[in-house]
Records
---
Amino acid sequence: MGGDVTAIAAQLDQRGVRHAYVDGGITIQRFLQAGLIQRLIITRVPVLIGAGIPLFGPLLQDIPLRHIATRQYKGGLVQSEYEVAV
């Protein structure tokens, strides 16, 4: 889907969608800034990348998070799950 994130969220809500996977640095930034993300799962892969789009970029304000869980997988992949504190 493309377009304004609030319009996308409204379309998904009308379709009865209650959980959506949002990916991509700019897309995540837009959904965060619109207050449309309630839970984050951040995956870290053991590779340092020299360039790219920052995951969060500049934010208008701090977004407090509550840690839910952290999982470690074979090969070094680590996932941390957070709830956006309201």
---
Amino acid sequence: MARDLTQNLFVAGHRGMVGSAILRKLRDLGYQNLITRNRQELDLLNPVSVQNFFSENEISVVYLAAAKVGGIHANDTYPAEFIYQNLMIQTNVIHSAHVSGIENLLFLGSSCIYPRMADQPIQECSLLTGQVEPTNAAYAIAKIAGIKMCEAYNRQYEHDYRSVMPTNLYGPGDNYHPENSHVIPGLLNRFHTAARDKTDEVSVWGSGRAKREFLHVDDLASACIHVMEIDKKKWAKSRDPGCSHINIGYGSDVSIAELARLVAKTVGFEGKIVFDTTKPDGTPRKLLDNTAIHQLGWQASHSLEAGLQETYRAYQQLQVEEPRM
């Protein structure tokens, strides 16, 4: 899809980490007509409200970044909310986009869609070849449904709805809740607090042996826009209609133990790191095969160390603005 800076683009979930990064990148590129709505202005769980919104706005392209997200604890504790809210959000937005005649949409998924014991690095065709990780199964099932919904609307109505599956994300705008956050913001919060309070040790969930790939959210934003600007014929030629999603990753992974030490170094914590083996590790390893997106001309640019330093600066600013967090 050729770049048209005058198109009306709707970024759903623009206040979240991913949506805000996409919005920043679109503005940097010079896009002029960016449409956003907060939760008070538009309830994405309400199909009537969503359809009315699309009917009232001449939207050309949709970036569907709105979702209920969280780490292992949140996913395992609130599975009903995770499957219900994500299914409703994506169903309402995708169907309303179709009803309104919108041909171009990007759906944001997650690498947790893949089987727990998938061969590494994980190729797109590994989808639905095994059981997903039980602790985040509800979220994964919802995201798989989103991929298949896009494929179904493409097949039946010849739309151009594309799906990207990012690896584990981090960066400015993340959620630093002490229990419901993802691993990097959770560790940053924990180690920052320990360094500030001069605590002797910090406990980290799991054995530390699980390995994860981490991608800076600004890299994901650039990848999303890159994907949407690829010519339709070129995109179709690169994808299988029945396995149309594409992986977006950094290209290498680290163990949780290595990550914990790097976060500790970033925030200046010099105490002991203890691994709580009574807590789950989750999937043993989750490294994406990024061959397809590389062949389409995109690669990540933020190293993990530099990205963590930038993220920590954003976190510190948040502490200044919201000292009681």
---
Amino acid sequence: MSRLVLVGLPGVGKSSVAQTMAQRWGCEWVDTDDVIARLVERSAADFLREAGEPAFRQQELLALYSSLGVDNVVATGGGVVTTPEGRRLLSEATTIWLDCADEVILSRIVDGDRPLLQGDPQGGLTRLRREREAWYRAVSLARIEASGTLEDVSTRIEQLLAEVKR
């Protein structure tokens, strides 16, 4: 089983934090969007645009299944919580919800390829937060503030996990 799974809105820093945690712990990390890209032989964003959200969510679930079976740190796509099966799998793992203010997220995604936020990033982010926040909370051990440096966020995660182990 994976050591840690990170969930949260697009642009909150899941991939960067996963990589940092894996370096700290001397293990591998995986981004489910990268797994999807290998499965469908194009970027996850392109596949989402071309195949639509239902097809994308099916591939995302396959990526989550394969990622959870390995001793690693997993960065998930922001919408992995939208399916009941995704929420079930996340609830059984050591899952942390990364979150920060919308303004911070928007500053991070300015040059990114985020199909669900195109056209109206602020409005899209507000909608995604409203739709997903309760699910992030339900599947996670805790919410970690992710607006600091990678080292700060990683330290917060390690402190939380140390407290949970007690």
